[in-house]
Amino acid sequence: MRKKIKKVLQSTRGSSSIEYVFLMIAVMALIVVFLNIASVKATQDNLNTYARELCRTAEISGRVGEETTNRAQELTENMGISPEINWSATGEIPLDGDVTVTCTSEQKIGLGGIGSWPVTLKGTASGKSEKYWK
User: Fold this and answer.
1) Can you give the chain as a three-state secondary structure string?
2) Burial (CB count <10 Å: 0-12, 13-18, 19+), residue 64
3) How far is C-alpha 7 from the chain's CA centre?
4) What angle do the packed helices 14-61 and 66-79 form, to 10 degrees?
5) Which entry of 30, 67, 77, 91 is 20 to 30 Å from 59 by CA?
6) Nearest-CA neighbor of 55 among 4, 130, 133, 132?
7) Are 90 and 101 in contact (CB under 8 A)?
């Protein structure tokens, strides 16, 4: 096998050189696609974490209001993302009441300078209020 590879590399024929150039271009394109997909996956994981943290804040405080707004600002500063936030309920949530938050963000995925396409990512979390309101 080693002799064969050495023979191919030492070959003076030009066709094998051209094939290797196209092979390298294809490999580089696959690496770029992989890196773009990894970036989208990382953003999706961050959105899920963002939503879980916001939902947990709403569960503990028993409402969607000042506490959740402050926590969203903290998360935006720490994580570097600022998604659109939608709540299933606002204001005070009764004890054991359901609350759901959906965080939506748009990211572009593409092949360098060839083109890019927007992808909508969503992170969702739900929980139950832990505070009793009189």
Assistant:
1) CHHHHHHHHHCCCHHHHHHHHHHHHHHHHHHHHHHHHHHHHHHHHHHHHHHHHHHHHHHHHCEECHHHHHHHHHHHHHHCCCCEEEECCCEECCCCCEEEEEEEEEEEEECCCCCEEEEEEEEEEEEECCCCCC
2) buried
3) 46
4) 160
5) 77
6) 130
7) no
**Residue 91 pairs with which residues in a beta bridge?**
64
Strand order in the sheet with 84-87: 84-87, 98-110, 116-128
pLDDT of the chain, 134 residues: tens digit per residue: 677 777 766 765 666 677 788 889 889 888 888 888 898 999 999 999 999 999 999 999 999 999 999 999 999 999 999 999 999 989 999 999 999 999 999 988 876 667 788 899 999 999 999 999 87
How many of the other CB atoms lie within 10 Å of CB of 81? 17
pTM: 0.79
Label residue 91 left, alpha or beta by phi (over 0 means left) and psi (-120 to 50 means alpha): left
